[in-house]
Amino acid sequence: MKKAQFYHKLKNNIVQCVLCPHYCIIKNDDFGKCKVRKNIDGRLYSLSYEHPVALNVDPVEKKPLYHFLPGEKAFSVGMAGCNLKCQQCQNWDISQKGPEELPTPKVSAKEVIERSKELNCPMTAYTYSEPLVSLEYVYETAKLAKKQGIKNIIVSNGFINPGPLKKLCRYIDGANIDLKSISDRFYREICSAKIEPVLETLKVLKQEGIWTEITNLIVPTLNDSEKDIKELVEWIKENLGTATVLHFTAFYPCYKLLELPPTPLEKLKKARKIAIESGMKYVYTGNLPDEEGNNTYCPKCGKMLIKRRLFSITENNLNKGKCPKCHAKIYGFWTY
Ligand code: SF4
Q: 200: CA distance to ligand 1 center in Å?
């Protein structure tokens, strides 16, 4: 537990958290919506600080990040709690509980970095649930990692205020932001949130020069129409550019949407086709094997550059970040 940043004291031991756009007003002995931040005697505390719920080594492709050190391992840290209540959440067993409701052994920021180094991971990922509501722990760990030459990546819903995000950006190298839909109605009805702050986060990450990829989980009947996909792609094109890496991933029935079917591969392929035809250069399908949609191709000459199978790289033809055939620059964070 650590005293939280980003809150104001109000009267009668009440506090207001300003970390995310919920701006929770929290009475004494009560929690914010994320269940991570608690008011104790008029002071706000982060309960997840140095108490992760999951530590694993994952391929960076699993985040998914396809243009950020492909083939490398990410030491992955997850904390309990989330500020969204998405009905389609695939990690609901940790995201919809607070740190006090789950086994969370103490692991200091220093220990996280020591383990990253022991396991030869060139990056630390803050992932699984929503890392940004555990900002204090992520900030301290990322700062230590950076000092030791380890990269930091966040996998986030993007629902955070710009001030705290900019502070964290000093130590962040890469991000995957879940853009759940381009519809504010979807955010309000399915996720108990709103879209505008997420779009703002994407713009801030671009301004701050953070390598950012976007995931859109396609949920049958809820955000899978051609109109939904076209509008989402148009927003990305106009605001972030055609070189933005975009992943369309498959939903599996879970949490509160058990009655919906899994996303068919054909839906993902269709979304990818729409995005490519509208000018997006790097578009992928995910969560399902797809001979074409999992690979990276040169947007200029079409040469296959990186071949993937599940989360592994089976062929890599990139040459110093360029296509070996037509020498076009391929946007990304490469080591080769
Ligand atoms: S971070 Fe948590 S406590 Fe703070 S405003 Fe968001 S949901 Fe509320």
A: 17
